[in-house]
Amino acid sequence: MQNQPRYSLMRRFFFPYSGEVALTRSQGVRVIITWALSFPLVFLLGALLIAPFLPIGSQQRFWLLLTGVTGGEIILFGAMAWFVVFITNQSVRLQQIQKEQKAAQSSSNSGGRYGS
Where exactly are the transmembrane stretches of this chain (predicted)? Predict the structure, then answer.
């Protein structure tokens, strides 16, 4: 049985994968959804905390602006998470190709000139 490394709470929540194996589609979707909802939620709560102290014309304008900004943040952080998942998977695939090439190269060199 393999021991899984114990990551910090933030690491386990936002990206709990080691980087040694490519993420499956469902794991990638989980990371994207987590990022797309968690980070904008923090900004939304911060904006709601400081909103009473800001001189905003109307409440309707405030909610419209807040909704638009939150939607933009969801898109932005979702795209960033997709990029992280994509780059992680590309890196894993590249490492696997390099390992295969090293294994093939070492097996072809093992005989040598005299077949030892």
Answer: 32-56, 62-87
**Rounded-to-5 percentages of helix, strand, coil across the chain:** 75, 0, 25
Amino acid identity, residue 77? F
What's the pLDDT band for 3 if we cut at 50, 70, 90? low
Spatial separation of the C-alpha atoms in residues 13 and 21, rounded to whole Å: 18
Collect all residues with Cβ–Cβ distance below 8 Å to 93 and sequence separation of at least 6: 22
State the pTM of this model: 0.74
Q: Of 95, 103, 102, 99, whose CA–CA distance to 22 is shortest?
A: 95
3-class DSSP state of 9: helix
DSSP 70: H
18's CB contacts (< 8 A; 6+ apart) are 5
Cα–Cα nearest to 40, from 81, 9, 12, 86? 81
Element containing residue 113 per DSSP (H, E): none
